[in-house]
Design brief:
Distance between the termini: 32 Å
Pfam families: GerE
Organism: Streptomyces humidus
Number of helices: 9
Low-confidence stretches: 88-105, 165-170
Shape: elongated
CATH class of the largest domain: Alpha Beta
GO molecular function, one term: DNA binding
Keywords: DNA-binding, Transcription, Transcription regulation
Strand order of the largest sheet: 2-3-1-4
Order of helices and strands: EHEEHHEHHHHHH
Protein name: HTH luxR-type domain-containing protein
CATH architecture of the largest domain: 2-Layer Sandwich
């Protein structure tokens, strides 16, 4: 099963010192096909990771071996199963209704939702393009619209945004 991990870290000088070990740990897991994707923002004080694990206990084991966790730098940790997020279409269509217009600004079209699901499944832009028999550029344009509608800027933020959470601080 795939899991989304969202974490916030203390504003601590140890973050910078431990960053190489943190990255090496997750890079090793990426090569083992455990880490499927991720990204950081707010100067490295927040991150979202997409991992493959048997269960939540295994996810917590992965987190426990991370140098940031061992140094107790995580302030807030959220672990969510991706199947929980995308189990039903109405859950995945996390619309923020807008007044008027054929398609509200926060709502993904059915096709955009299919593209978003493929992104969450770990497919590359080229693989998505091949599936729909379109150019990779067409897929990039769909992804740009998805990001704009959900007010995100990275693939790693997609699952949380579909869940209706805001990733960036106000």
């Amino acid at each position: 099963m795939r899991y989304i991990i969202s974490r916030a870290f203390q504003d601590d000088p140890r973050l910078h010192r431990l960053r190489p070990a943190h990255r090496a740990y997750w890079r090793r897991l990426m090569h083992q096909d455990v880490l499927l994707g991720g990204g950081v923002w707010e100067d490295g004080r927040r991150e979202v990771l997409v991992v493959k694990a048997q269960d939540r206990a295994a996810v917590h084991q992965l987190l426990g071996a991370d140098p940031y966790t061992q140094e107790r730098l995580a302030l807030d940790v959220m672990v969510q199963g991706m199947d929980d997020l995308l189990g039903a279409e109405e859950r995945a269509e996390c619309a923020i209704p807008a007044a008027g217009g054929a398609e509200p600004a926060g709502r993904l079209s059915a096709h955009e939702l299919r593209v978003a699901r493929m992104m969450l499944d770990g497919l590359t832009n080229r693989q998505i393009a091949e599936h729909f028999m379109v150019s990779p550029r067409a897929v990039e344009q769909h992804i740009t619209r998805i990001y704009r509608k959900l007010s995100i800027s990275r693939r790693a933020q997609l699952a949380v945004a579909l869940r209706g959470e805001r990733l960036l601080a106000s």
